[in-house]
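Re: that backbone. C-alpha cells:
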C-alpha cells in the first residue's frame, strides 16, 4: 500500500547562493533547518522504489514549497528517476487540462500505447483529436493513471506539481484520481499548494506536510546569511514584520539594505505580509528600463514559459535587467518569475491600459490557440463586446467537449459579463450554471442561477434557473431548502413545462426518501397528484408529458410510501418491465425500493452497461447506489462491493457526496456481516463526516443498522440493542419510513439476547401497525422472525414457520438464513433435534457461500449441539474470504477471463496494481497461477450460477 505520512514541521529555510541572490528557485540550494522535510523528501525518492508514495506540501506563500520540490526533483534525478513536472498558473485556471497537458507534454507520444478508449479520452481532453470522445472525467483519470503506471514500469518516476491551487479543475481532478489509486507503481507524486488545506480533490485520505514559519532562532540564522544582514532595531523590525516567513526575511532585508527608511514606513502604515512583499517587488519593477518593464509585463500577462519566441518583445536582452534584479530567472524552457508573488506584483503595478495592450499583443500571437486567444482578448476588454462574448462561448463549447465542465462554465460566465444584450447575458449565465452542476460547485451554481433571476423576466429561463438552484441545494446537503424550491418549480411548471415539472417532482421525491419525514413525503406525493390530475399537465404536442413520466411516477410512489398499496404498484411495475423503458435507471431503483429485488438487479445492470459509456458515466452514480443495495439484499455481496467501489470513484470524480457515502455504507454493512470488524467504524465515521445524518435520516438509519450488525456479529448484544433502538421511537415511529423496517428482525434479535423482550415487543408491534397490512413478502418474513424471537414458547413456532412456506423469501438469502438459524436454534432448545438439523444445515450453507463468518460460526455451533459433525467448507481454507475486497473483485474478474488491462479499466486501477494484487492473492488461494482461478470461483459461487 502507498506510504502515508502526516507531519507538521516548524523549522528552516534556505541559505542564499554565493552570488548573493536568494535561492527561491531551489536550484543548487543549501537549506538551513528544514532537516525533517529534506530527509523525508530524500527518503521518498531514494531507491529502492518498491511502492507508490504521495505527499502534499502545504503552507503560506514564501515558506519554501517550491524550493523543497526543486530539491526533491534534483535528488530524484540523481537517484535515476524520471521527473515530470507542472506548475499551476493563475492565468490558466480557466483552460481545461492546461496543467495536465504541461505535465504530460514530454510523453505525449506514449498516449498511442494506451487502450483505445483511454487514448481517445486523453487526446480529446488535450484537444488533439478532430472528433474528441464525449467528456468523461473517470476515463481521463484512468488514462492518466495508466500512462504514469506504464512510464514507471520502465523507470522510477517522480511527478512534481507546484502551485497546485492554481491548476485548472479538470487537471486537478485527474491527478487526484490517479493519486488515490497508486499502490505498487514505482512512482512518487509530490504537490505543493498554498494554504493549510489541500486543494479540492486532494482532501481525502492523502498524506500532507504542513510548513510552518521559522522559529526566531532559525530566522536569525537566515538573516545572518544574507549579504547585508540588518542589525539592532532594524533587525527587530524585519523579524517582527516577516513573522517567520523566509521569503519575507530575505526580501525585507534586501529592501532595508538599500533604503533604511523603509522600516519607518512599515511601522507607520503596516501592510499584510503578502501585501508588503508585493509592494517591495512592484517598487523594483518601476525602476527598471521601459523596455524591460514592457517585456516583464508581457511575461506576467502571458504567464507561460513557452511564449518567448511567439510574442515580440520577450527577448533575453530586454529581460536581462529584471534577471539582475532577482525578479526572474532565465533558462530552459524559458523565462520565469522568481516567485508567484513577483508576477502578481508586476501585473498589478501596471495601469489597466498597459495590461490590456499586453493581452492584445499576446492574443495576436495566439490565434492558433482559440481558448487562450479568446481569454487574452477578454482580459483586455473594458466594456461589453458581443464578438468577444461569442468567442468565449465557442471556447466553452470546446472545453466542454474535452471534459472541462468547470472551465467551460467560467468561459460562459465571462461571456455573459461581456454580453451587451440582457437576453444573451441571461442565456449564457444559465448555460454556465448548467455546466457548473456536474463540476460539483453548488455555491457557484446558485450564484449563476441567482443572477439569471435578477436579469430576466423570461418565465422559461427563470424556471430553469430555479431548477438549477434546487439541484445545487440538494448537492449542498440543504434538503429542506432544496425540497421547497423543487416543489415550487414543479407546481409552476406543471401547466406549461411538464418535462421540468416531472424532473422537479422526481428530485423532490428523492429528497423525501432521503429524509423520511412524513410531512415531506406527503408534499412530494401531493405534487404527483397534481401532475396526474386532468388539468395537471398539457396535452399539446409542444408540452406533452415526457416519455419517462411512468418511471418517475413509480419512483415517486415508491419513495413516499414503499409499503402502501404495494400490490397494485408492483403489478404495474411488472407490466412496465415487460415493455420498453425510457429511464431504466429510475425504474430499477424503484424496483429496489419496492423489494422487487431480482427485477431491480436485472434492470439496473442493463442500465449501468449503457451508463458506463464515455460522457454519461456520471449519471450512473444513482444507479450504482441502488444496485449495490439490491446486490446486498439478494446475496451478491461481492458484486455489491464492486458496485460500491465504482460508485465511490464516480462520487469522487463528479463530487457526489451522497453517492460516495452510500458506497461507504454498503461496504460497512457487508464488512459487518462478514465479520471484518476493523473496517466498520472508519467507514461509518467517513459517512457521518460527509452527510448530515440529522437531515438525511435514511443515512442515519443505515448507519445505526451497520453499527448494530457489527455489534451483533461480535456477540455484544447490549450494544447492538442500543444501536438498533435508534431506529424506532418508543411509540413505534420509525426513524426512517423504509430503512428502519429492514432492520426490524435484527432489532428483535438484539433485544431478545439482551433480555429486553417486553419493551422490544411493544415497540415492534407499534411500528408494524404503522405499515399496510400487506407490506410484501420481505417485510412479512422480517416481521415474522422478529415476532418469533420475542414471543413466548407457545407461539414462537407459528411465527417462525409461516414465512418458510413462501418461496419468495429465498430472494433475500441472508435474511432467510437468519430465520432458519433462529428457528433451528429454537427447535434444538425444544429438543426437536431432527427438525432443527435441516434448517441449520441450509442456513450454514448460505452463510458459508456469503462469507458471513460470524453467522457461520453460530450455525456450526448449533449443528454440533445437535450432534452433527460439521464438515469443513468445500472451498480451500481461506479461499476468497482471506482476500481484501479489492483483491476479491480482481480475482473474480480475472477468473472470468478478463485481462489485467480490462480489469484495470473496469475498476479504475492501473494494470500494474491489478497484477500486484493477483500476485499477492495466489498464495492466499492456495493456487499456483491464473489458470486455477476459475475453479476456485466456481466452487464459491456455484449456488449463484446465472444470477
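Recovered sequence:
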Amino acid at each position: 500500500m502507498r506510504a502515508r505520512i502526516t507531519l507538521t514541521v516548524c523549522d528552516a529555510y534556505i541559505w542564499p547562493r554565493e552570488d548573493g541572490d536568494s535561492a527561491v528557485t531551489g536550484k543548487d540550494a543549501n537549506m538551513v533547518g528544514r532537516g525533517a522535510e529534506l530527509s523525508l523528501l530524500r527518503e521518498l525518492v531514494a531507491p529502492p522504489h518498491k511502492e507508490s508514495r504521495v505527499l502534499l506540501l502545504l503552507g503560506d506563500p514564501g515558506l519554501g514549497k517550491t524550493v523543497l520540490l526543486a530539491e526533491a526533483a534534483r535528488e530524484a534525478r540523481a537517484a535515476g528517476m524520471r521527473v515530470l513536472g507542472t506548475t499551476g498558473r493563475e492565468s490558466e485556471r480557466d483552460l481545461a487540462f492546461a496543467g495536465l497537458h504541461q505535465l504530460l507534454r514530454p510523453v505525449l507520444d506514449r498516449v498511442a500505447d494506451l487502450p483505445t478508449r483511454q487514448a481517445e479520452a486523453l487526446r480529446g481532453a488535450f484537444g488533439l483529436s478532430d472528433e474528441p470522445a464525449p467528456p468523461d472525467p473517470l476515463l481521463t483519470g484512468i488514462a492518466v493513471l495508466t500512462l504514469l503506471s506504464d512510464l514507471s514500469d520502465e523507470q522510477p518516476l517522480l511527478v512534481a506539481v507546484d502551485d497546485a491551487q492554481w491548476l485548472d479543475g479538470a487537471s486537478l481532478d485527474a491527478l487526484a484520481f490517479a493519486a488515490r489509486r497508486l499502490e505498487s507503481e514505482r512512482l512518487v507524486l509530490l504537490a505543493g499548494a498554498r494554504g493549510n488545506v489541500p486543494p479540492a480533490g486532494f482532501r481525502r485520505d492523502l498524506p500532507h506536510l504542513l510548513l510552518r514559519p521559522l522559529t526566531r532562532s532559525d530566522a536569525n540564522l537566515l538573516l545572518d546569511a544574507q549579504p547585508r544582514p540588518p542589525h539592532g532595531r532594524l533587525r527587530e523590525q524585519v523579524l517582527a514584520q516577516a513573522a517567520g516567513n523566509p521569503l519575507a526575511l530575505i526580501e525585507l532585508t534586501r529592501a532595508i539594505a538599500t533604503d533604511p527608511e523603509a522600516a519607518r514606513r512599515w511601522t507607520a502604515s503596516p501592510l499584510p505580509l503578502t501585501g508588503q512583499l508585493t509592494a517591495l517587488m512592484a517598487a523594483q519593477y518601476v525602476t527598471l528600463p521601459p523596455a524591460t518593464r514592457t517585456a516583464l509585463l508581457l511575461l506576467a500577462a502571458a504567464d507561460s514559459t513557452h511564449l518567448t519566441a511567439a510574442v515580440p518583445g520577450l527577448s533575453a536582452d530586454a529581460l536581462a535587467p529584471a534577471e539582475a534584479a532577482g525578479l526572474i530567472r532565465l533558462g530552459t524552457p524559458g523565462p520565469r518569475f522568481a516567485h508567484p508573488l513577483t508576477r502578481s506584483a508586476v501585473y498589478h503595478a501596471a495601469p489597466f491600459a498597459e495590461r490590456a495592450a499586453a493581452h492584445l499583443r499576446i492574443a495576436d500571437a495566439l490565434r492558433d490557440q482559440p481558448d487562450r486567444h479568446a481569454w487574452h482578448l477578454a482580459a483586455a476588454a473594458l466594456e461589453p463586446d458581443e464578438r468577444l462574448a461569442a468567442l468565449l462561448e465557442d471556447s466553452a463549447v470546446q472545453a466542454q467537449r474535452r471534459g472541462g465542465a468547470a472551465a467551460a462554465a467560467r468561459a460562459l460566465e465571462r461571456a455573459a459579463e461581456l454580453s451587451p444584450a440582457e437576453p444573451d447575458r441571461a442565456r449564457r449565465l444559465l448555460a454556465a450554471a448548467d455546466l457548473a452542476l456536474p463540476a460539483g460547485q453548488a455555491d457557484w451554481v446558485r450564484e449563476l442561477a441567482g443572477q439569471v433571476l435578477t436579469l430576466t423576466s423570461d418565465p422559461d429561463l427563470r424556471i430553469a434557473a430555479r431548477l438549477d438552484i434546487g439541484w445545487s441545494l440538494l448537492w449542498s446537503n440543504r434538503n429542506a431548502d432544496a425540497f421547497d424550491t423543487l416543489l415550487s418549480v414543479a407546481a409552476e411548471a406543471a401547466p406549461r413545462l411538464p418535462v421540468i415539472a416531472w424532473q422537479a417532482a422526481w428530485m423532490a421525491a428523492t429528497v423525501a426518501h432521503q429524509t423520511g419525514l412524513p410531512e415531506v413525503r406527503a408534499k412530494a406525493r401531493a405534487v404527483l397528484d397534481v401532475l396526474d390530475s386532468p388539468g395537471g399537465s398539457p396535452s399539446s404536442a409542444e408540452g406533452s408529458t415526457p416519455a419517462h413520466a411512468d418511471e418517475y411516477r413509480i419512483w415517486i410512489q415508491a419513495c413516499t410510501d414503499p409499503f402502501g398499496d404495494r400490490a397494485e404498484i408492483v403489478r404495474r411495475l411488472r407490466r412496465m418491465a415487460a415493455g420498453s423503458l425510457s429511464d431504466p435507471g429510475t425504474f430499477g431503483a424503484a424496483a429496489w425500493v419496492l423489494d422487487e429485488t431480482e427485477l431491480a438487479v436485472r434492470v439496473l445492470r442493463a442500465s449501468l452497461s449503457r451508463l458506463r459509456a464515455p460522457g454519461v458515466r456520471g449519471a450512473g452514480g444513482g444507479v450504482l447506489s441502488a444496485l449495490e443495495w439490491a446486490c446486498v439484499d439478494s446475496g451478491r455481496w461481492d458484486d455489491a462491493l464492486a458496485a460500491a467501489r465504482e460508485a465511490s470513484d464516480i462520487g469522487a470524480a463528479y463530487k457526489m457526496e451522497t453517492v460516495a457515502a452510500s458506497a461507504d455504507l454498503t461496504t460497512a454493512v457487508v464488512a459487518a456481516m462478514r465479520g471484518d470488524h476493523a473496517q466498520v467504524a472508519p467507514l461509518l465515521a467517513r459517512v457521518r463526516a460527509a452527510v448530515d445524518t440529522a437531515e438525511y435520516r435514511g443515512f442515519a438509519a443505515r448507519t445505526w443498522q451497520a453499527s448494530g450488525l457489527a455489534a451483533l456479529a461480535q456477540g455484544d448484544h447490549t450494544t447492538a440493542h442500543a444501536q438498533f433502538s435508534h431506529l424506532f421511537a418508543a411509540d413505534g415511529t420509525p426513524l426512517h419510513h423504509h430503512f428502519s423496517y429492514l432492520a426490524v428482525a435484527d432489532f428483535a434479535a438484539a433485544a431478545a439476547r439482551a433480555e429486553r423482550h417486553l419493551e422490544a415487543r411493544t415497540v415492534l408491534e407499534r411500528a408494524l401497525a404503522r405499515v399496510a397490512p400487506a407490506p410484501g413478502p420481505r417485510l412479512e418474513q422480517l416481521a415474522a422472525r422478529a415476532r418469533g424471537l420475542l414471543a413466548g414458547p407457545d407461539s414462537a413456532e407459528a411465527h417462525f414457520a409461516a414465512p418458510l412456506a413462501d418461496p419468495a423469501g429465498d430472494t433475500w438469502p441472508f435474511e432467510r438464513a437468519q430465520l432458519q438459524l433462529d428457528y433451528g436454534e429454537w427447535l434444538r432448545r425444544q429438543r426437536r433435534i431432527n427438525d432443527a438439523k435441516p434448517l441449520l444445515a441450509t442456513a450454514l450453507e448460505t452463510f458459508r457461500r456469503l462469507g458471513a463468518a460470524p453467522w457461520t460460526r453460530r450455525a456450526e455451533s448449533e449443528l454440533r449441539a445437535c450432534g452433527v459433525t460439521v464438515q469443513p467448507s468445500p472451498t480451500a481454507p481461506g479461499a476468497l474470504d482471506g482476500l481484501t475486497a479489492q483483491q476479491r473483485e480482481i480475482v473474480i474478474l480475472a477468473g472470468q477471463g478478463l485481462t489485467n488491462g480490462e480489469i484495470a479499466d473496469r475498476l479504475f486501477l492501473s494494470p500494474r496494481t491489478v497484477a500486484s494484487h493477483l500476485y499477492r492473492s495466489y498464495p492466499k488461494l492456495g493456487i499456483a497461477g491464473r489458470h486455477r482461478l476459475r475453479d476456485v470461483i466456481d466452487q464459491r459461487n456455484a449456488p449463484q450460477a446465472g444470477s
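The mean pLDDT is 85. DSSP finds 46 helices and ten strands in the chain.
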